Fold these 2 entries.
Entry 1:
Amino acid sequence: MAELKEARVPDIGDDKDVPVIELLVQPGDAVKKDQGLVTLESDKATMEVPAPFDGIVRELKVKVGDELSEGSVVALIEPAAGAAAAAPAPTPAPKAEAAPAPAVEARPETAPAPKAEPAPRPAAPATNAGNPSTPPVRFEADALLPGKVPHASPAVRVFARELGVDLAQVAGSARAGRITREDVQAFVKQVMAGGAAPRAAGGGGGGLDLIPWPKVDFSKFGDTERQPLSRIQKLSGANLARNWAMIPHVTQFDDADITEMEAFRKKLGEENKDVKVTPLVFLIKAAVAALKKYPAFNASLDGDELVLKKYFNIGIAVDTPDGLVVPVIRDADRKGLLELARELGEISARARDKKLTSADMQGGCFSISSLGGIGGTAFTPIINAPEVAILGVSRSAMKPVWNGSEFAPRLMLPLSLSYDHRVIDGAAAARFTSYLAQVLGDLRRLLL
Ligand code: CAO
């Protein structure tokens, strides 16, 4: 056996006594130069201690919880033939900053990742693209069910999140299926090449074998140009694809007679010129009333359990030039119409000015997607997991409605409620939309 060499903590700036939060390798593992050996997490950042050369880990000198500083010995490594001689002193790991990591191409392999926040669930591409040169995509339902967390270090999670990669879609090549930074890079490369990333071996049942994504040379048919997707488009597209594939959606349609509501809304608007009162605020109030009456709609699936929420946070889909975002209006049950109108105006403006934070988009119970200001008669919105239902609203229109003796002109608002059929059955959905329509038809019901 060749002489063992030490792998030490490189320069980590001013940080001292930084705890080890994760061991990334075990004795006997072959490692490549710059591959992470352990993860350290200070109050400022998460960083990996890189292997200084190729070789085989013979002994780990640390355990989770140990506190390390620059120069601490992390492992003894048997260098691969010629590796240690050729290897320079351990690459100093640049000090971890809280700034976002650069894009994958620009990111040095050894660079520490910013401090890992809890990975947003759900958030990231569920890319199912394939091409003829790759095997069919395995869409692993098991790996995406609520409660299943892909195995990866915080640094790799941050790295994946920066790239908009859903770790549930990435095959882990390391021990016990752990996903490494290289796995994420390989996944991105394969997706960018229009291919499907392979999933972890032995995925087993529950997956859908999809045929490969069509690969077409469009220029054969005429001029084209390529536009990169915005970051928001990539993230929301990934969420939408995952939610559409994973959730058995059904959409229930109904119409609400908002003739009286509209008269009241106009009056409110005239009395309160400083705030724009649109039908959406009434819908938020009515949705809260319906969620209170039908609590299964204010729930999330967690494995075999339903988590019923006792708070009423409503997500609002906002269309921005960069794509769709869903900020959340918190405690909508405790806010009046005018307060909701002000908050709606404020979050829409912040969304369009790109000033929303991720906290603004968390904690939602139920979402509303209103296309009423634009047009249309109905649509099938995609549920914003882990919520179980979403209300789509289209443009109200004056219609002749039979009142028992004659047709009367009434302002009708089309409602499209998509729901997760694993949690909600059709009868409950029909009751929910009927109740919504009743409340919107007679706002006094909000007082009940
Ligand atoms: N029927 C008729 N008119 C409606 C209406 C409806 N259902 N909803 C809104 N309107 C009217 C408003 O009263 C307003 O009229 P005035 O300008 O005369 O006052 C006008 O349409 C524009 O409203 P708005 O869109 O500015 O305001 P809003 O509160 O209805 O919606 C917001 C705010 C942020 C939700 C909206 O701007 C938006 O982004 N909508 C798109 C959401 C989206 O893309 N959803 C699809 C996601 S994919 O599932």
Entry 2:
Amino acid sequence: MKKALIIGAAGFVGSYLTEHLRDECGMEVHVTKLPTESLPEQKDRAHDLNILNKEEIVSLLFEIRPDYIFHLAAQSSVGIAWKNPALTIDINIKGSVNVMDAVRELYYKPRILLIGSGEEYGHIPEEEIPIREENRIRPGNIYAATKACQNMIGSIYAQAYDMEVMMVRAFNHIGPTQSSIFVVSDFCRQVAEIEKGLREPVMYVGNLNARRDFTDVRDVVRAYGLLMEYGEPGETYNVGRGSSVSIREMLEMIISMSGREIRVETDRNKLRPVDIPVIEADISKIHALTGWEPKIPLRQTVSETLHYWRGKV
Ligand code: A2R
């Protein structure tokens, strides 16, 4: 039985990945969380870990000896990265280096999947869409720059130390339980609050013209499992739907699922200092290697996310 370690499992993706690896892939799954976080289950295989402390990582790896390491721990919000760049750089760059360097000290070679972001590509000229992995990257925000740096360092570790490090560029992933600091959850939460009469029928939005590539988180974790098994060391793989929709279309879809009369207003706090107009993945590389493609329709994900928020507010 393969032993997997998910670093940063208390976040949005972690719970889905834990379930997928355990129930679909039949792995023994160990997870880490920050001491301040809690996990709903799996207490015996849950470990406290702060990736800013390399010694903690080394001793955990010696204790568990995983075959596979999924590195999800991050400061994952573009908005928070603008407000707190130094912390984002610490966690996303220094933290990842700590993980890779701890693995380098082991006497065997586990496989490592580093989770980066479609944001790394940054400002993409129209003729470069959909974007391929070998495309030039032009990170347009602090979060993107940290993930681009993680990717570069990952490929250096793979080459220099012959380590089995694979890199993902994940495009926007969405689904039930995602924090409402991310756009689709934010809209679903606002609609659910309006339906419950907790606020006026007014939605506050940021830039509606931006186009993003949205994939259901359950499809995303399936891709991570396949890349861990079949990915080539030192290689980067896009994980996305392969088509983009505007934030306006997402907003209209969510409002139409409610059937309420809702007014839309711009909230200046939701506008970014720099926003990237279109992000859209070319997913032929992962498809050719593993046969993966997203299965869950966007409408289904949005409807289930709205259902989640209706139960939560
Ligand atoms: O920031 P928190 O308190 O939500 O904790 C996050 C955790 N984390 C850390 N873990 C260990 N050591 C640290 N120094 C540290 N700082 C933060 O990593 C959170 O529990 C987890 C990341 O989960 P999310 O923020 O929910 O990200 P998500 O959506 O699960 O995305 C997974 C990966 C990330 O690398 C994203 O940048 C990428 O996919 O798109």
